Amino acid sequence: xxxxxxxxxxxxxxxxxxxxxxxxxxxxxxxxxxxxxxxxxxxxxxxxxxxxxxxxxxxxxxxxxxxxxxxxxxxxxxxxxxxxxxxxxxxxxxxxxxxxxxxxxxxxxxxxxxxxxxxxxxxxxxxxxxxxxxxxxxxxxxxxxxxxxxxxxxxxxxxxxxxxxxxxxxxxxxxxxxxxxx
Length: 182
Known about the structure:
Layout: H1 18-41, H2 57-69, H3 79-88, H4 94-114, H5 122-125, H6 141-156, H7 162-175
Helix pairs in contact: 1-2, 1-3, 3-7, 4-6, 4-7
């Protein structure tokens, strides 16, 4: 049995840093921006997947602007986000990633944004209790997700789990940036 890669190992304790969190947000911006551009311009994505209310780029831009105004240096995108964005440009793969990225962010992402192991809140620990726009939606999130879920399930009927596994691997690499040190 081969040893697990870093992105496959579970995290026993969340100890986020501002630098790591900024890397995570910047790389998330790259991934969401790529995904949202594909959706807007790809003939394989019909209007049902456009302007769903799940889009994150505008919110991430607000958050990164806030960090900059607070005196933090905004890092350049790193390889996890850049590699994932490059991979997403494969039109055959992006619907699976669309599903997993938006649905994982809306569920797990909100939890990460608010709660870390031992009930330490990122907002309290790193952000002076600021709630980031990345974790806010216009409208009822459950309804926004339901509006997209059925359409996506129809598109993905019969797909293998291989692409889903790749989605979790690549998004896990971006997520682990939260724990990185300068």
